[in-house]
Amino acid sequence: MALLVPTQTAEKTRAKVVGAAVGAVAIVLIVLAAAGVFSSSSTIGQVHLVTAASVSPATPNAQMDPFGAPSAKADYSVPPPPGQPTLVPTIGTKTTQRLYGADPFQEAVSVTQHVWPAAIPLNAPNENNNDPDRPWALTLLTPDEPLTAITAVPLLHFPDDAPVLYVNKNGIPKITEDEIKRLGDTGISRYHNVDAFLVGAAANPGVEKQLKAIGLKYATVTAPNVPALANTVDKLYGSIQNPDTGVPDMGNGMENVMVGSMQSYQYLLPATHWVAHMASGLQWVNKNSVPQPTIEALKRRHGQARIYLFGGPEQISGAVANQLSQYGTVVRITNNDNVAFNANPTDTPVDTAIAFAKMWDGAGEVGWKITGPGHGFTLVNINDWQGAVASAPLSHLGFHAPLLFTTSSGTLPPELEAYYKSVAPTYTTTPADGPYNMSYVIGSWNQIAWPQQAHVDYISEMGNRRLWNTTTGGGYTDSSPTP
To answer: How far apart, in whole angstroms, are the C-alpha atoms of residue 15 and residue 178?
Structure first.
């Protein structure tokens, strides 16, 4: 093989190329050094500040989308957990959780899916004890009878543990039947292993046929009128919860009864969350008269009833309050205070719900006594009574969240805004110490819009108590004292 020797021309060319490369590198190094990219120190990096964008994005609302509107489609979807194909993902923030429902059937299912995972088999230890993974039974209602639905809620509390699901007057819709199957309730051991109470119009041949087909035991609960139905529910629940006397009590002898006017049923809606939380009675009156079934229910208390009237004299008259006092002690739940106000203020369902969330009656051990942070709430549009009733399990298990009302989809009522701010959590040492608030937001975006949910989150977040402009909120010690 011949040995190739570079010619003098080739050598000169190579020298020029190498020299040019070295020169270029030297120039680059000088430029980078001048720019501060390289430093003689290895203990610090660089900061490069860009203060202006090259292009302003086209957006119809620069205040909401300053960098352009996001895609009109979700970036990704969340699959249900294995073995639970009917579970529906929900939207949450730091201090709120949306339980979505475009109709009453969806609302009720969203609540039961949130409270009862039903991921543990029936024979698991403690599955039939407090705080179960599955409910022990169900309370089936139709979504077109508010007085009937409110009347049935005492059946929800232990030892029934029977959350609300909605059915039709001629059968069970698929979404409800799927949820009945998913929940796979254990049956009420204290009451013939019953799986469901069919109350009012829910007790119809179509519903009964479908329940039989999937193997559920049930009891129908009906009456000729609403006060008689309330008396019937009271006797039924009392026989299960307190078989000694047949009257519901709280285990300490207190025989409390929540009372509302049939002409102003929205005022009694907050009581549904209480009777789901504590064993109590629930009865009806008219503004100016007391039905005989209600009198019979109170007489069973033998003068020991503590009777809570929801609303002011415009909802339940003073004459009715006086008549009810023959059967126990009467306490009004109202925003009135005869020391603070020269004349009676107007009572609204919004005010009544807030008053009940704040109150504490030590004698009857009734009231949520929430005047400081560290609690849960359930927020429902006042026109969505179905969502209010269906969400009662949120006061039965978990955060034990009393009911609050908004009156529109867009903004909070001023009194509710003020209440939320008054109980917002603040810290003096570290936010890690808590406490924290949580609000469940019930229903569709039309009932409570996303901006309203986001606003609740904004005013419920932890704040710094040391800041000069923090004038609301508090800590653990600001809640009403225990007895």
So the answer is: 83
